Amino acid sequence: MYCGSRPGSDPRFAELAGALGGELARRGIGLVYGGGHVGLMGVIADAVLAGGGSAVGVIPRFMVEAERAHAGLSELIVIETMHERKQIMSDRCDAIITMPGGVGTFDELFEAITWNILGVHQRPIGVLDVGGYYAPLRSLIGHGVEHGLISAETGEAIVWSEDPGALLDAIDGG
Prior knowledge:
Order of helices and strands: HEHEHEHEHEHHEH
Strand content: 5-15%
CATH architecture: 3-Layer(aba) Sandwich
Number of strands: 6
Number of domains: 1
CATH topology: Rossmann fold
Helix content: 40-55%
Shape: globular
Largest sheet: 3 strands, parallel
């Protein structure tokens, strides 16, 4: 799960983070995420845990204080670098879901897409597009496809949804 360490200005972000976390727990799907206690990261982890699910956080040592690592997780993995964080998160997941977030979230999403293109992994990639937050990105990817710089397969490989349950269903079926 990639999402913001801030809650954002739209209350739907936190609402759907909580809904997605609850749905993950209900379906018995564990959460692997950035390990923070704050922002959307904290909301989804709390929802998974409240639903009886498993939440694994991966956080660099230098960010433990800055992000206030979540103390109640099923497992907290403290590592040294952001590169290790992304690799461990990728190694420990079966699918990648992105919610609204900032440049760090964008970086994580693009690296996951790139790794998929290069065959580093073949995990489904889903974007929970809360309130049209990712509409400009979806348009940009379509623009790249139109201009022949992004393959149509890459554009089609990303699952977009505004509904947590529908997104999980689409990823599970993909």
